[in-house]
Amino acid sequence: MSEKVVMEMGQKFPLTIKRLGINGEGVGFYKRNVVFVKGALPGEEVTVKVSKVQRNFAEAEILNIRKPSKDRQEPSCPVYNECGGCQLQHLTYSGQLKEKRDMVVQALEKYVKSVAETTDIRPTLGMDNPWHYRNKSSFQVRKEGKRVYAGLYAEGTNKLLNINDCAVQHPLTSKITVGTRKILQKLNISIYDGKSLDGLVRTIVVRTAVQTGETQVCLVTTRKDIPHKEELIERILKVDPSIVSITQNINREKTSLIFGDETIGLYGKETIHENLGELAFDLSSRAFFQLNPEQTVHLYDEIKKAAQLTGKEKVVDAYCGVGTIGLWLAPKAKEVRGMDVVPESITDAKKNARNHGYKHVRYYTGTAEEWLAKWKQDGFIPDVITVDPPRTGLAPSFIKTVLKIKPKRFVYTSCNPSTFAKDLQELTKFYHVDYIQPVDMFPQTARVEIVAKLTLKKK
To answer: What PANTHER family does the record point to (predicted)?
Structure first.
C-alpha cells in the first residue's frame, strides 16, 4: 500500500476527480490524501495547486482542465465565480440532479453501508425551470462614492457585489431591489457603513408571493426616523404595481443577522397572502416561509405519499415550524399534533390551523421528546411521526423517545444527507428504510433535500 505523503502549500500535480463534496467542490485523492478542488467536476482530469493544507485533507485550485466533464457548461451568472451563493452553475442541470443523488449515496455509504446497498434511492426530483425560483431576497446596501450598491458579499470577503439580476431570484425581487436602491441614491438617504456602523439603511428585503402576485418590501434600518419618508414610499410604489406592503425593520446591533425585533408598517398591508397547493398563508416581513414554493409542493406531496394516510391515523409533526407539513397532511389524518421550541412559530401555526378551519390540528410549544413522553402517559401514541429538523439533524434524546414509542411509520425529511445518514444508525435498529426520495429545492446550489419512508420492523 502506498504511504500517505505530507502535502505542501503551492505543490502542483495532476488529479482525477472522483465525486462532488457536500459543498459542491470536486474531490480527488493524491497519494492517499483527500483533495478538495472548487469548480472541478466528477470524471475530470485536472492539474491543481495546493492552496490550504489541513491534517486530514488539502484544498487546491485548478490550474488547467486536461479532460473536462461532458456535463461542464458555462455559468450564466456574470458574478458566479466571486459570489459563492450558487456552487453548481458550471454543471448541467441533469448533471446536478445525478450528483445530488450521489451525495445521498455517499453519506449513506459512510454511516450506514447496509442501507446504501439495499435501499431504493430514487432519482432526484428536479424543476422544469431551475432558474429564478427564490421568492425572497435580502440584499445588503452599501455606498461607494456617490453610488449605492445592493447585493451579496463576495465569498470569504467584505467586498459587496452589486447584483442587478440574480439568476436564482424571482425576477420581480431583482427589479424591485434595483429600483429601491436607485431611489435611495436619488434621495441621498444615508446608507449603513459596516465599518463605522454609521448610516441608516442596511438591507433591502423583498418577498413576492408567487401564486397571488403580492409583493412586500422591507427596509432594514439602524433607527426609526427616515428622511424624505413620504417621497421614498411614493417612489418605491411606482417601481412595480405588485407592491402592496412596505415595512421598516429596525436593527441597531452590529450583527450578521438581518432583522431586529421591531417592525413598523409604512404602507399598505402588514402581510402578503400566498397560496401553497390548497393552503393559504399570510406572511409578515419576518415570517419563515419556503424559498421555493413550486418545489415545496412536490416535497410536501412526497411526505404525504410516505405517510400513507387513510383518515384513521394520529400524526405528530415534530419540529413543526409554522405548521405547514402538519396542515398538508391534515385532510387525510384523524388527528394532527405538532410542536416546536420557537413560541412565535407555534403562534403562527395555531393561526394557520384556525384560518383553514381545522379542528383536529393542535400545536404546542416545547421539545418533541417532552410532549411525546407526556402524551404516551395520557394514552396518545401516534401512528405516524413526520420530522423536518434543522441541518444538525435529530436530537439523540428525540431518537430515543421515538424508539420507545415506536410509531408504525416515521417520515424523515432532511436538508443534510450527512446528519440524516448518521441518525439512521440508531433508527434502523427498529425501522426499515423503504425508500429515499431526493428533491432538488435549490437548483444551482450543492444543497439537496431528502424524504425517507421508514417502517417499523416486524418482530
So the answer is: PTHR11061:SF45, RNA M5U METHYLTRANSFERASE (PTHR11061)
Q: Is 149 annotated for ligand binding?
A: no
71-99 per-position pLDDT tens digit: 999 999 999 999 999 999 999 999 999 99
Give the number of C-alpha atoms closer than 13 A to the C-alpha of residue 149, restricted to the C-beta side.
13
Condensed to tens digits (0 to 9), the pLDDT of residues 20-39 reads 999 999 999 998 899 999 99
User: Hey, how many other C-beta atoms are within 10 angstroms of the C-beta on 374?
Assistant: 12
Exposure string over 86-123, b if 16+ CB within 10 A, otherwise e: bbbbbbbbebbbbbbbbbbbbbbeebbeebbeebebee
Contacts of 145 (CB under 8 A, 6+ apart): none
Helix, strand, coil % (nearest 5) of the chain? 25, 30, 40
Distance of alpha carbon 259 from alpha carbon 255, whole angstroms: 9
Please give the model's pTM, rounded to 2 decimal places.
Answer: 0.94
**Residue of 453, 454, 411 whose CA lies nearest to 431:** 454
Does residue 239 sit in helix, strand or coil? helix
Per DSSP, the residues of 13-27 read EEEEEEEE-TTS-EE
- The C-alpha angle 216, 365, 208, rounded to 5 degrees, equals 15
364 in a known ligand binding site: no
A 10 A CB-CB count for 459 gives 3
348 labeled part of a ligand binding site: no
Q: What is the pLDDT of residue 299?
A: 98
Provide the annotated active-site residues: 415
The reply to whether 240 sits in an annotated binding site is no
